[in-house]
Amino acid sequence: MMIDNEFKRAIIMDHYSKPHNKGSIDESYKSVHMASDSCIDDITVGMKFDNDIVKDVRFDGVGCTICISSTSIMSELIKGKSIDEALKLIDEYYKMIDEKPYDEDALEEANAFNTLSKQANRIKCGTIGIKAMNILLREEKYGK
Q1: Ordered DSSP codes for the chain
Q2: Pairing status of strand 53-62 against strand 30-35
Q3: Residue 122 is part of a domain; what is its CATH number?
């Protein structure tokens, strides 16, 4: 899925200005808080599970454009998936960030971040929410 730079910017700005799944997280969600030591990114990601399925994903807090939009996009991608499918999507995202071969079709709009590795100072921004999701998925699958 090739995305030109203008379309990438449009995807990123759309998810930043109208983030999907952003809102308050109550105690019925398993959650993890993540904060950057080098920028404004300070978010909490929460998930609900129904057996092996990611029933809901939410996040709240503040973050830069890259942080909010990447978290929004990935929350949409993994919602409704099995834990294993969600972990696979996150693995594909990290492959993309690491400039390794990855499944472009599976990542859909997340391909907007396919050049993030060329901006080393932005990698943390583009992975902080995904890291939180990865932690929650692994805790649910493997326990603490």
Answers
A1: ----HHHHHHHHHHHHHS-TTBS---TTSEEEEEE-SSSS-EEEEEEEEETTEEEEEEEEEE--HHHHHHHHHHHHHHTTSBHHHHHHHHHHHHHHHTT----HHHHGGGGGGTTGGG-GGGHHHHHHHHHHHHHHHHHHHH--
A2: unpaired
A3: 3.90.1010.10
Total number of domains in the chain: 1
Task: Evaluate whether 54 touches 83 at the Cβ level (below 8 Å).
Answer: yes
Structural domain of 110: 5-142
The model's pLDDT over 20-44, given as tens digits with 9 standing for 90+, comes to 999 999 999 999 999 998 889 999 9
Instruction: Give residue 21's identity as a one-letter amino acid code.
Output: N
How many angstroms separate the CA atoms of 83 and 55, rounded?
10
pTM: 0.94
Cα of 132 vs its chain's centroid, Å: 8
What are 32's two structure tokens? Answer: 């993890």
> Shortest CA distance to 54 belongs to which of 25, 75, 40?
75
**Cα 138 from chain centre:** 15
